[in-house]
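Support request from a user on the community tier.

User writes: "When I paste my C-alpha cells into the form, the page sometimes reloads and wipes my input. The last time it worked, I copied everything first. Here is what I submitted, just in case something in the input itself triggers the reload:"
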C-alpha cells in the first residue's frame, strides 16, 4: 500500500541535501548547468515597495509557489510553516509518470542592495531527487525607476538515478524540461499578475498546501516513482542535519 501524501511530505525531514556544497558553484562550476533568467513584470511608482502593489503581489505568489507550471511540476508542503526550513514535495510530471522528490528551503532574503529592493528565497535538492542543485526565486524592484522583475538563478546537474530506464530518459528529456519549466514560470507569473486567478483553496484537514492553485499532485492512471535518485554512502558534506 502506498504511503499517504502527508507521510511523503513528513519523510523529507530526515533527508539531507544531496550534494556536497564545497563541490558545487560558486566554488566548482565544471559539470554544472548554471542558469539566470529574468522578466520585467511592470512598474510601480519609484521608491520603496508599495503595500498591495505589483512587487508585493508578485512576491506573495512566488512565496506560495504559484508560478509553477502545473503541467510540469506541482508541490505539496505543510502549512502554516516558516519559509526557511520548509520541506516541499515536488511532483514532476512526464507522460504517465509522476516523480515525487524533495527540496528544502534553506535561504530567504528581503533587503535593499545596489538601488534595488529584493525579495526571494532558495531551495536545495534532497536525497532521492532526480537532480542536484539550488534554485533561487526573486522579485526585485528598481527604486529609481520603479521597474519590477522576476528573476530565477539556478545551478544543477543530474543526480545518480536508481532506475536505468529513468536515467536514460532523463538524459534526453531532463534538461529540456527544466529550461521549459523556467521559461513557463516567468510567463505564468506575469499572466497571474495581469489576470489574477481566484485564491487557491486553503490547506485541507491534513494541513498540507498544494501548489499551484490547490491542484492535486497525483491523479488516477499514473505511475508513481518516489525519490528516484540514488541514496547511498555517507551524507554529503555541508548537508543539513
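"...and here is what came back when it finally went through:"
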Amino acid at each position: 500500500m502506498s504511503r499517504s501524501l502527508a507521510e511523503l511530505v513528513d519523510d523529507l525531514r530526515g533527508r539531507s541535501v544531496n550534494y556536497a556544497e564545497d563541490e558545487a558553484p560558486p566554488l566548482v562550476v565544471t559539470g554544472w548547468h548554471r542558469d539566470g533568467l529574468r522578466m520585467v513584470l511592470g512598474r510601480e511608482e519609484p521608491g520603496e515597495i508599495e503595500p498591495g502593489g505589483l512587487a508585493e503581489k508578485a512576491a506573495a505568489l512566488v512565496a506560495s509557489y504559484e508560478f509553477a507550471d502545473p503541467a510540469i511540476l506541482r508541490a505539496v508542503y505543510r502549512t502554516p510553516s516558516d519559509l526557511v526550513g520548509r520541506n516541499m514535495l515536488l511532483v514532476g510530471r512526464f507522460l504517465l509518470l509522476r516523480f515525487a522528490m524533495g527540496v528544502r528551503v534553506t535561504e530567504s532574503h528581503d533587503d535593499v542592495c545596489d538601488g534595488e529592493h529584493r525579495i526571494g528565497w532558495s531551495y536545495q535538492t534532497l536525497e532521492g531527487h532526480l537532480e542536484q542543485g539550488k534554485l533561487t526565486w526573486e522579485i526585485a524592484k528598481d527604486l529609481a525607476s520603479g521597474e519590477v522583475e522576476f528573476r530565477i538563478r539556478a545551478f544543477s546537474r543530474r543526480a545518480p538515478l536508481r532506475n536505468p530506464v529513468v536515467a536514460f530518459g532523463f538524459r534526453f528529456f531532463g534538461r529540456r524540461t527544466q529550461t521549459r519549466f523556467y521559461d513557463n514560470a516567468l510567463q505564468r507569473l506575469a499572466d497571474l499578475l495581469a489576470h489574477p486567478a481566484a485564491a487557491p483553496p486553503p490547506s485541507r484537514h491534513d494541513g498540507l498546501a498544494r501548489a499551484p492553485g490547490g491542484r492535486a499532485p497525483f491523479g488516477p492512471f499514473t505511475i508513481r516513482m518516489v525519490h528516484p535518485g540514488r541514496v547511498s554512502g555517507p551524507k554529503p558534506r555541508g548537508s543539513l542535519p
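Agent notes: The reload is a front-end session timeout and is unrelated to the input. The chain has one domain: 5-226. Helices lie at 5-11, 54-63, 164-194. Escalated to web team.
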